[in-house]
Known about the structure:
The complex is a heterodimer of chains A (about 350) and B (about 650). Chain A has about 350 residues and is mainly alpha-helical. Helices cover about 65% and strands about 5% of the residues of chain A. Chain A is built from 13 helices and 2 strands, in the order H-H-H-E-E-H-H-H-H-H-H-H-H-H-H. A two-stranded antiparallel sheet of chain A has the order 1-2. Chain B is α+β, with helices and mostly antiparallel strands and about 650 residues long. A 6-stranded mixed sheet of chain B has the order 14-18-13-17-15-16. Chain B has a 4-stranded mixed sheet with strand order 1-10-9-8, covered by helices on one side. In chain B, a hairpin with a 2-residue loop joins strand 6 and strand 7 (about 195-200). Classes of the chains: A mainly alpha (about 350), B alpha+beta (about 650). At the A-B interface, helix 2, helix 3, helix 5, helix 7 and helix 8 of A face helix 1, helix 4, helix 9, helix 16 and helix 21 of B.
Amino acid sequence: MFSYLxxxxxxxxxxxxxxxxxxxxxxxAIQKPDTMAxxxxxxxxxxxxxxxxxxxxxxxxxxxINWDALKKHKVTIKEEKDGHTRTxxxxxxxxxxxxxxxxxxxxxxxxxxxGKSDVTGRPLKEVFKTGAIPSLLITVPAFFAGLAxxxxxxxxxxxxxxxxxxxxxxxxxxxxxxLPSMIYIxxxxxxxxxxxxxxxxxxxxxxxxxxxxxxxxPVALMVVLGLGSxxxxxxxxxxxxxxxxxxxxxFAKGVPISRVMWVHVLKNGMIALITLTVAxxxxxxxxxxxxxxxxxIPGLGNTLYLAIQTTxxxxxxxxxxxxxxxxQAGLIATDFCYALVDPRIRLS
Amino acid sequence: xxxLPPGVLLVxxxxxxxxxxxxxxHPKPFAEKRPxxxxxxxxxxxxxxxxxxxxxxxxxxxxxxxxLEPVMDTPLEYDPMKTNPYELRPGLLEEIPHGVPNxxxxxxxxxxxxxxxxxxxxxxxxxxxxxELVVGDFLYAWQRMCDPxxxxxxxxxxxxxxxxxxxxxxxxxxxxxxxxxxGIPGFEIKDPYSFTLHLTKAYPQILYWLAMHFTSxxxxxxxxxxxxxxxxxxxxxxxxxxxxxxxxxxxxxxxxVPGQRVRMRRNPNYHTVTFPEGGWPPELEKLNRPLAGKxxxxxxxxxxxxxxxxxxxxxxxxxxxxxxxxVGKDAYNSVVTPIKTLxxxxxxxxxxxxxxxxxxxxxxxxxxxxxxxxPNKKLRQALSAAFDRQSWLxxxxxxxxTVADQLIPPGxxxxxxxxxxxxxxxxxxxxxxxxxxGYPNGIDxxxxxxxxxxxxxxxxxxxxxxxxEYEQRQFQQLGIRIKVIENNFARMLEKExxxxxxxxxxxxxxxxxxxxxxFFFLFYSKNIPPIGKNSSRYIDAEFDKLFExxxxxxxxxxxSQIIDKMNLKLIEDCPMILSFNKAGYVIVQPWAPRxxxxxxxxxxxxFLVIDPVMREQKRxxxxxxxxxxxxxxxxxxxxxxxxxxRWNRQRHV
Lengths: 348, 653
């Protein structure tokens, strides 16, 4: 198991390196940093101020490899000796071959130094720290509430299978799945926050229990968003379990139906369920782009949205890096959970 | 008997509890009441984007300026009431300085600072109490402008005329470190309360720069203290100076939460300027008369919420949680009627509608170095006359902006309200001009085919594309062929740098300061991209001469004559197709009337007032919550549960 973990971890290195190369090419080879400098500096950008901007961020270095390192430069130095000034010409190499934007960035990411935002100059570590809390406050409750609601709803449908409620539930699920997520957000905001005025339509403040009023609506909407597809899936899983021999045996032994459903079926169905959901867990920290933007929650989703809008290379790159790491972590966690809940599976 | 699952009861009670809590999205104000027991006044304003930086010597975007204006005082400031033309009045200086020729052939401006002005209280000062403003704080600001690490966007303009700024910048660039112990030759300290600016040439616009926050005095202690680090013995990390300005303004900076809000509170020591004694338009007489000459600010706290989408601001304004808003595209049709009045539902709430015209001009750039357009003035005039600006504005901008007949926008010295562009929309005239240009009915006699011209535009969405296609159709009425080329922003910049285009749509300029020089320099031959913004590559010796003489003159009848001449010359030469001056509607809440309409001020919040009693009453009225939907949802849930249970029992009987 330990050797499996090591192997799995080693696999992630080339994957993440590949992701970073692709993002780097997208940002630095396709679009020049000069353009971004001019966007940032506004209408009074001069070639000089652009150069200073690039230099201060290290973007004036060669992109991939510093070929200058191979060439020898002649440098003239004035030397003062015993009151006489004489000029000496020496040959100097153009620095290290790896003195390029690419290698600097890769090294920074390898050492988990995210640097500063290109646009605001805020340290990205701080950006992640402050943004993660609001994001987690929405995604974690939404994840667990969503899971619980979908499982409960699926079990109820299995419990009442082939009844009019089951049919209506299935139709409802398909309807929920067919609508684009924007509709839920706009409609939910319009109905609950604007029409009924139960919650603020926009905003966020971390202040004890009153934070709830900002979170409940987005969390509820996220639960509804995932409900359709999740319920359909879980219903299939549970229905399959329900047809198994052990369920029949349990009924034959006189176990009440509620116990069969909530203990036997649920427990066995969980194996499939865990493998499907655990992979999502680490990514929760990155928040929800749409929801945060619509409700004005200053989480990481919102930060990423803004970074993309303002072509903030440094921030987007850091997000891609962290995102890639988290997804890898999620996949590894899935493997382990799978082995943990199902004793038949061995990791080797 | 059927027992209700506890979950249903729990959800129902939770919802009932929530219905009782407020939908006010704002955090609690800093205080409930003033020390004298009167209500604590908060002004809720909004901005559509993040401030890029709150460093006065670096920030150049509109959002940053909005936050900096209440916090950082400037040596001079715009008179809030004088908008036609805009006028300056003293801020931190005792009076507006006058240029005096010096021995070196340049101009000197002697500036005297008001005494007794204190910086905001801040932990960066000994004892946390703000110290007095002295001349060294002004010098420090000018030094920072020359520091390459600060990246001051005003440097290129100021270094051109202020003695020694460029040398200081170059020296620091070479050594990698700006030496703050050295002064700047152009900034001479006379005594602790006065300094002289030495200009190498006449540049009267320097006064406008003194009304921008680049020249705001800076406390060195603050820049050094707020370093963004955690220090031994302190529990919290200090904020970075870039986002924690300390100034002498009417409001002290309290907090900036990225993506959410900026908050400021009243500076109790503020007495730099007072509310103007007069000069407002007659319709403001009733509101402003009682305020005349009074100490400002009138409000205790400002909360600026950052709304990156237009919708939430609109919603919160309707609920009474925002004290007014700009009417964006999304909200336009619901807010403004076709006859340009406020919709009934808003009028019922007591709201009013205001229109602001920005000091800006937008145009289609024509490349003067293009072999077809450049030498053919009649062709350019024909294109200008073929463009129906009003219908284009009606379709793409709801008809809000005004058609520009001259380069100078309204409110700026040199604007002539009676002037009409002789090459404004007139299709008959356009066709005649085109024939005179050598292309009768749009046909190029050399090829026998319609003349083909390319129109470059920056298109990132369907709307921009449609706008360009509309322009294309307008020009094609002449019988010529227009080829639209869509570019991304980077590609367009590149084309402008290289002069590799014929016509480019969507150019424009928003005034940095209300002087015609700030618009005419767009056509000065030494400002061709990438150095400047003369994308038309208009090179004209006479225009250049006039520009050079007018830019070094103070306002006078003689200068007005030159401005008129330049204005007419540009209209006649047509290096661009003038299109519009940007404008926008604003919704004003009944409790937050506007005391001024000056758009050169970024909000001018220190002059604003608020009626908290009316606001509270209206908020209550507009936010009544119906409780029946909770009951309805509860009944439906219970019904479903009961039905399910019954169905199941029947099945297993």
